[in-house]
Write a structure and sequence with these properties.
Length: about 750
Amino acid sequence: MRNIQNFLLGALALLVSCSTPNVTEKTPVDYVNPYMGNISHLLVPTFPTIHLPNSMLRVYPERPDYTADQIKGLPLIVTSHRGSSAFNLSPYQGSEETLRPVVNYTYDNEVIKPYYYRVYLDKQNTDVKYAPSHQSAQYEISYEKDAPVYLILNSKNGAMQVNDNTVSGYQQLENNTRVYLYLETENKPEKTGVLQDNKLNTELDTISGNNACVALYFGDKAQVQKIRYGISFISEEQAKSNMEREQKSYDVNALAEAGKKVWNDALGKIEVQSPDENEKTIFYTSLYRCYERPVNISEDGRYFSAFDGKIHEDGGNAFYTDDWIWDTYRATHPLRVLIDTLTETNVIRSYILMAEQMGDMWMPTFPEITGDSRRMNSNHAVATVADAYAKGLRGFDLEKAYLVCKKGIEEKTLAPWSGKPAGWLDDFYKKNGYIPALAPGEKETVSEVHHFEKRQPIAVTLGTSYDQWCLSQIAEDLGKKDDAEHYLKCSYNYRNVYNPETQFFHPKDKNGKFIEPFDYRFSGGQGAREYYGENNAWVYRWDVPHNVGDLIAIMGGADRFIENLNQTFREPLGRGKYSFYAQLPDHTGNVGQFSMANEPSLHIPYLYNYAGQPWMTQKRIRTLLKEWFRNDLMGVPGDEDGGGMSAFVAFSSMGFYPVTPGSPTYNIGSPMFPYVKMTLSNGKIFEIIAENCSDENKYIQSATLNGKELNQPWFNHSDIANGGKLVLKMGDKANKAWGSDLKNVPPSAKPL
């Protein structure tokens, strides 16, 4: 009987194996879902961007969000994260009289990969394939019906020229910046011309102005048009050179395969293993978004700089821009320090060059293709410099970096969203150690203050305190003892706006009196900008990432600190959602008053580590990741900002996080994966093994680092810089003793 059973089991196994199709193992880029978060909870959604890592050429379908049933032409380049397309390509079939500068398409069967785009324009009966390289790309457009075939190319504000099967031109951007296009079709058109007043003029080949538009006519039969093009910020000739260097043929499928390999090389620097496919999708999608910015704009060893309006030689070092530093310094830059030191080094070199090119030697705060827009508050590029140097990067001039950071803080106004020189507010800060606030209804008299963004006195005071701590770290590395001591003292300026009675950071007027009466949820007007910035006092209560130990002390000790921290996650909105978000639209992704959707909140769940309760960090991190980051169209809680929030997801999913950029340390959380393998820039391997890891088993029971027992919720960069292994034993009940010794908490700033 046993022999018969064995025979039957073997036959069944053979039958199953024969009937099961071969399943190709998924690569990292196969897990990326560019649609994740394409429907916004409230503000700007994520965009399904098609590009290669940190490349100059980026595109996405031009529509308000995923629910829009039309796309506006086909994109050729997006010049800024979340900006609209420069130029539009519109394949069209119909009479000459119905030509328009841009065609709005209904669409179906859309497929977006980081390296590939396909869409069916269903009303036009046209199939579109697309693949990018770094500075060039290809379209393959299949017209399925017999009708007049046109290609329409539009510059929204610039000039276009058509010559047989080539089109060239430019679009004017801000700050005397232009983006140039050179495009050619494989097949020659039967006629060409410019579109004027919605009529095709075949006697002209050049047009300029708003909606400058040319059209190419290819006959009246169904056909396939293959197109390749290059873009440039230097010239049309350079755009042609970029195309010819990268596009040797018309083969969109081969180009897509090449792009897929590039993406797998980038994403494959971190390997995660998990039985949960959705978790792997969330991770690799987040990692993909960390490569959207900044972009390398070097073209054949040259680049156009909007910071001085000139073309420069790059000296063999790629020039990067389009980096919203206020969003990215917290985690995107620290992630790049681990897995791509060359890019991070060149980014910092680029910052220094920008400061020199602007003439004032002020470190940029929000560098874009069109120059430094000086958005948000504080000067956090200094944090990227301090963090990179603290973790061993040496490929930039630290002395010069320190100079431009110092000048950016000392000589440029601290007023948000302003590039003006320092004025009265700055003199006041230097003398009194805080930015003074206006009383409700008090008229603004300081010219450097932005009319909408206001003073944001608490956000600026806290942010500048941190920036000055970063300066003190760099000064110490350079042996500048007096500067190091001075800026260390300044780094405690957050104390000057701390209200010991309420234990909140509370705005003061110029006479040193707290603004009263005061509501820590709602005072400050739109976005709380009159006192804070996008977030309210509950979030900024914790914005002292460099000195959490001192924050614990001034709150009265670890127990009170924990109480206040817990209450942040429990405090009700205080109003109906409609009213709350009408005033605080950036303050979404709420758990109580905690906002998962905005960057100043990202480090808050890790603060339990500093007060002897790392088990609460483990619980919070797992809960927040599960609640707010999902593999669906609403799977991102707020403005993702091109890597700013996604890096938090990537780090936290692996199990650690850089709470304090500028400090060579990482806080331990709770990994989502049983196994993580990170290939560092030096080729060494850092592994994280979470034994028994699962949704339930989120609590660390014990740990070893590089074979030695670890009973603290943090580790040094030096512990992993040459490879390492962090082993965590996980369980479903908190081990409240692990990492709880207050002698072993993560480091904070030096005492005064």
